[in-house]
Amino acid sequence: MYPQKKNHEKIYCFFDEIQTIPNWESFISRIMRTESCEVYITGSSADLLSKEIATQLRGRALAWEVFPFSFKEYLDFQQISYDQVLSSKDRFIIQNQFSNYWECGGFPEVIDLPSALRVKIHQNYFDTILFRDLIERHNITHPKALLDLAYWLIHHIGSLYSINKLTGYLKSLGHKTPKNLVADFLTWFEDAYFFFSVSIYDASLARVSSNPKKIYSIDSSFADSIVSGILLNQGHHLENLIFIALRRLYPLICYYKTQQNREIDFIIQSKNREKQLIQVCETLTDPATYEREITALNQGMTELSLSSATLVTSQESKQVTTEAGIIHIVPAWQFLLELPAFL
User: Which of 59, 87, 133, 201 has its CA 20 to 30 A from that of 31?
Assistant: First the structure.
């Protein structure tokens, strides 16, 4: 198109959804080898997996993951400033916007749409991912087992699962699905950025493999649009929202179980290699719930020799001093805005 630029200046090439063109890898490889250029490739299909690109382009590629809007990106979209000292009015506006973000999720297309239309679009996403990125891509000849598994997982966001449990569930529905195929289904779900699995934190790989994992969705509101309203768990909704915020920053996230068998939702390792414990609880108004969550974090901090931990809630905010150290109780909107500070 611009032969006069050849050998005179660097060219920048942008290709969107290029995976629909056969043998695109050879073309990209050739122009990178023969031209002075940088190439940017974007796509929303599981056909464009970063690990496959690295193989096809022989290590000459860097991959970026693009998630639905974070809370900060949502505020940017709404043209609301959050990077200054917040006045009472600012805090009220941001808290109100968090309620909207909580309800509509991070997919740009559905922001500000009526609830009924948003649910229909989310359900269309669900079907599209299942049929295009999973059933067609992997040539699944009997897709009913995969569909039933997807519905079970999206109804159990934030819950523990095991391959044996899932295989048994599918067997109860009449599917003759072997355990190795169920494991493949879970891997394909993750490749498509549909679901994410979180393993237990343990130095022993054998114990990591033998313990149940927790399941999360790419977007908590997306999951709510699929799940029946009577089965909706707001605590798991908030937990999913916090997981995705962490996953944008940290590819490896685990859950932690104390020696007294108390579960802590997330443990991550920050860039300076310090471990951080993060618990999520929608509300602490029930004294028994408060005691349970504080005790679990205190035990975890003691076992890991940590002096602080974070407890994310929907609204509460305060600091609690325990025998092990300080627990920062923060509302979710503040945690999402100040995420690097807490980690």
Answer: 133
**Percentage of the residues of the chain whose pLDDT score is greater than 70:** 92
Rounded to 5 degrees, φ, ψ at 175 are: -85, 135
pTM of the model: 0.88
Give the contacts of 49 (CB within 8 A, at least 6 positions apart): 191
Note whether 158 and 214 are within 8 A (CB). yes
Domain span at residue 27 reads 3-56
- The DSSP 8-state label assigned to residue 22 in this structure reads T
Give 284-334 as a DSSP string.
Answer: --SHHHHHHHHHHHHHHHHHHT-SEEEEEESS--EEEE-SS-EEEEEEHHH
Of 333, 228, 235, give the one whose Cα is nearest residue 293: 235
Cα 131 from Cα 48, distance rounded (Å)? 16
Residues 122 and 219 in one domain: yes
Residue-level pLDDT at 57: 67
Is residue 341 over pLDDT 70?
A: no
Count CB atoms within 10 A of the CB of residue 224.
26
Token pair for residue 34?
Answer: 């023969």
283 shares a domain with 203:
no
Instruction: Give me the chain's average pLDDT, please.
Output: 89
